């Protein structure tokens, strides 16, 4: 299952910053631009400040309990999914909402999917085995350190 360019827009939005604010005048919105890498960079590394999140976009991680792994493509600083989704988790396994949550291009031995996982349930994946999710090549390039966001998605 491919998630296409909707995820691409979400990834590109991670690199936007406010250029100026027109003030509280009705109808005026802040002006944003996309933060692009320098002309010598082909990819972006460590797009999330490590002081805010333990894992980085493009990092390969595995679930500490369940048998799946994936590549991080987005980070929420705190839980940002529905209450229905959260309450579907068994109460004795429910993670705190007050921690980063990661969006993964995930896989197990049967399928590929998008997962939403709390930071406390993730571990770095040290296997050096590529993740084969079909959406990864659209957004990331494989590097010796994992995956790096393609320059096209930073613009």
Comma- or semicolon-separated keywords:
155 residues; mainly beta; five-stranded antiparallel β-sheet; three-stranded antiparallel β-sheet; 3 helices; 10 strands; 32% strand
The separation of the N and C termini measures 25 Å
Order of helices and strands: HEEEEEHEEEHEE
The assigned structural class equals mainly beta
Total strand segments: 10
Largest sheet: 5 strands, antiparallel
Strand order of the largest sheet: 7-6-5-4-8
Could you explain the architecture of this structure?
By secondary structure, this protein is mainly β. It is built from 3 helices and 10 strands, in the order H-E-E-E-E-E-H-E-E-E-H-E-E. The chain has helices spanning 4-13, 83-87, 136-139, and strands at residues 16-20, 31-34, 43-44, 60-63, 69-76, 101-107, 112-118, 122-124, 140-143, 146-150. 25% of the residues are buried.
Fold blueprint:
Layout: H1 4-13, E1 16-20, E2 31-34, E3 43-44, E4 60-63, E5 69-76, H2 83-87, E6 101-107, E7 112-118, E8 122-124, H3 136-139, E9 140-143, E10 146-150
Antiparallel strand pairs: 1-2, 3-10, 4-5, 4-8, 5-6, 6-7, 9-10
Quick structural overview:
This protein is 12% helix and 32% strand.
């Amino acid at each position: 299952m491919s998630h296409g360019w909707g995820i691409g827009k979400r990834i590109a939005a991670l690199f936007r910053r406010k250029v100026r604010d027109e003030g509280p005048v009705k109808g005026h919105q802040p002006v944003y631009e996309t933060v692009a890498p320098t002309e010598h960079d082909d990819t972006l590394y460590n797009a999330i400040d490590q002081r805010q999140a333990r894992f980085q976009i493009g990092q390969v991680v595995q679930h500490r309990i369940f048998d799946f792994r994936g590549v991080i493509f987005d980070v929420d600083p705190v839980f940002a999914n529905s209450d229905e989704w959260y309450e579907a988790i068994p109460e004795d396994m429910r993670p705190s909402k007050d921690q980063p949550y990661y969006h993964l291009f995930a896989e197990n031995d049967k399928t590929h999917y998008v997962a939403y996982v709390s930071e406390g349930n993730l571990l770095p994946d040290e296997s050096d085995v590529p993740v084969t999710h079909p959406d990864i090549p659209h957004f990331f390039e494989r590097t010796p350190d994992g995956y790096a966001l393609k320059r096209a998605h930073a613009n």
